């Protein structure tokens, strides 16, 4: 497994609700945060690289302090078995605070987090299985429980589309969205008339696309694909002339692999309320966008970068305010004290099971630009 250490000084400066962390210190301290996710493999460019950039930006704002923070990355290649091994390795090194990046890590490690009395924060996993009655397993991601009802409302109440086809990755998180959507949609009178799946590393989707194209009942298609294979998928959809209206989620359309958004023209998607286009952007968000651009050739941050930034910022704030040697104390601080706490991604409030309340927006790609759907 590939391991990366970043040693930092930790102090929390609350400035309009923001937490800032410094990467100038090089002395290993008592508080470690272990990040488990795909450091290597086909998903690294989507999950690991932008997440690390967001974390680095958050860490760059921390000034020197007597308390030290070390961020340690362990590779699981989006494989739950490797996630467990990575967790065991970090636990043996004394790590008690974790960022679990991706559904495989969240699903496999969450029971261990609870059993060991540790704390985890999840920036991107959507699966319903992570939701439990424990304050130790925290999450800031929009979840399947958000996306499923939102898709249902969009299709039935706003667009009057009752027969839907799905083209969904067979990964845990994507299937969680599908399962919740199917349950809510069909209970409300809709119908999934065809359900196609694919492996996260598949690059040929012509068989599924051809079958969908032949379906005469379908009124729209929901696509969930968070890996770099979204590019060949959308290319093949265009090449094969599939003209059904396409709908997706944040991870599919704001995928770091999509360098030219004209490839996604016309696609409507459900998204975090955070935007990089200047509309309804707070000062904290503007600073994050500016910092990211200055470090990355003027490019805009992906949702993974944003979630990395806000995940480590929340943990850093709680670690500084609570007893960092007692994970339960830190978890209790998050659920009891973090209310309307503003970061780059908006205001965060955590419920008793450490799930963050997040707003959801409907957006569309028009002429290579993302616009709000009114």
Explain the overall architecture.
The protein has 374 residues and is α/β, with parallel strands linked by helices. The protein is built from 11 helices and 15 strands. It has helices at 44-60, 80-92, 103-116, 144-158, 172-187, 206-213, 230-239, 250-253, 283-295, 303-321, 327-337, and strands at 3-10, 31-37, 67-75, 97-100, 119-122, 137-139, 163-169, 191-198, 220-224, 246-249, 268-272, 341-343, 346-348, 360-366, 369-372. A 7-stranded mixed sheet has the order 8-7-9-10-11-14-15. 51% of the residues are buried. The model is unreliable at 4-28 (pLDDT under 50).
What is the CATH T-level topology of the largest domain? Rossmann fold
Using the CA coordinates, give the radius of gyration. 20 Å
Annotated CATH homologous superfamily of the largest domain: Response regulator
Low-pLDDT windows of residues: 4-28
Return the structural class.
alpha/beta
Largest sheet: 7 strands, mixed
CATH architecture of the largest domain: 3-Layer(aba) Sandwich
Our count of helices gives 11
CATH class of the largest domain: Alpha Beta
**Global geometry:** globular
Strand content: 15-25%
